[in-house]
Amino acid sequence: METVFSKIISKEIPAKIVFESENVLAFHDINPQAPVHVLIIPKTTEINSVRNFIAGAHDKIIGEMLSAAKTIAKDLNIFDSGFRLVINNGADSGQEVPHLHIHLLGGRKFTWPPG
Ligand code: AMP
Fold first, then answer.
1. CB-side exposure of 13: number of CA atoms within 13 Å?
2. Is 27 left (phi over 0), alpha (psi -120 to 50) or beta?
3. Which of 1, 2, 3, 4 to mutate to test the pocket of ligand 1 (most atoms within 8 A of CB)?
4. 112 within domain boundaries
5. Measured in angstroms, how far is the CA atom of residue 77 from the centroid of ligand 1?
6. By CB atoms within 10 Å of each CB, which of 14, 55, 64, 75 scores lowest?
């Protein structure tokens, strides 16, 4: 499905990219909710959310996304202080873009439970 994220992958629209590999792209969120707010996405457009996740077929990409999160947290100096990873899925979660993405948030203290 074509979304704002697929247009970022194809470079049709610009983004502040912080990480890119064969299968994964990460860029700063346009509306940051913390001093560091990065979105980590697979380059494939076939996974709309965790609800589309297929065991076996998609295991590798999730591992690569988490590995990217670790690298980016180190690069952006939030690894030691701590950070939060969020994946919204569907209407009740507030998911806006139907392309799997991990929010990497850091640089401030977060409350729990989330709002
Ligand atoms: P979600 O609500 O989990 O679907 O998150 C979608 C995120 O994408 C939001 O935090 C938006 O601010 C972000 N977003 C939307 N359009 C862009 C864009 N063009 N560049 C960067 N981030 C975007």
1. 9
2. beta
3. 4
4. no
5. 22
6. 55
The CA-CA-CA angle for residues 19, 110, 32, to 5°, reads 45
∠ Cα 101 30 102 (to 5°): 15
Question: 28-79: per-residue pLDDT in tens?
Answer: 999 999 999 999 999 999 999 999 999 999 999 999 999 999 999 999 999 9
Does some domain include residue 113? no
Q: What is the CATH number of the domain that holds 53?
A: 3.30.428.10
On whether residue 115 sits in a domain, the answer given is no
- Domain containing residue 72: 4-106
Catalytic residue among 37, 99, 101, 103: 101
